[in-house]
Amino acid sequence: MGKQVYIIYYVVAVAPRSLHITPKRSTYQPGERISLLCTAEGNPMPSYRWTNFDNETVSEGADLTIVADANTTTYVFRCTATNHYNGKNHTATDVVTFSVGIDNTGMQMLQHNFTNETQISVKY
After folding, report:
1. Is 109 helix (H, G, I), strand (E, B) or coil?
2. How far apart (Å, rounded) are the C-alpha atoms in residues 54 and 67?
3. Distance CA 22, CA 6 (A)
4. What is the DSSP letter of 12?
5. CA atoms within 13 A on the CB side of 78
6. Cys bridge to 46: 23, 81, 95, 116, which one at CB 3.0-4.6 A?
7. What does the pLDDT look like over 27-40, one tens digit per residue?
8. Residue 69's domain is classified under what CATH number?
């Protein structure tokens, strides 16, 4: 008689943890494309939602991409990672804050652009 072999699989449910938002820059230039990525560990795999300062949903999924607006000086976004098991939702959140402005490098670029512009003569 042969031996019987049983394979047993255990599924371990884990709430979202180790949530990170990258990159962690504090300043962006007006018009610059900003791509943020939210990652977390969890089982089942978490879903992601981005909200703004007013708690309005601005994106579903791990990625958030915006273009920095010169009229907005400070951005605040929250990433919430959620998974569901044992009849309950489990969440983890992280917040990123950054500002839009012209730093020394931006000012140098702006001055450089002005000095290389075409000269226009006006006659009266």
Report:
1. helix
2. 19
3. 44
4. P
5. 12
6. 81
7. 899 999 999 999 99
8. 2.60.40.10
At residue 10 the predicted structure's pLDDT band, cuts being 50, 70 and 90, is: confident
- CA 38, chain centre distance (Å): 6
Residue 72 to residues 29, 49, 54, 66, Cα–Cα distance (Å):
11, 22, 14, 12
Residues 54-68 as b/e (b if ≥16 CB within 10 A, e otherwise) read: eeeeebeebebebeb
**pLDDT at residue 71 in the model:** 87
pTM for the model: 0.73
- Please state whether beta strands 74-85 and 14-22 pair in parallel, antiparallel, or not at all (unpaired): unpaired
Count up the domains in the chain and report the number: 1
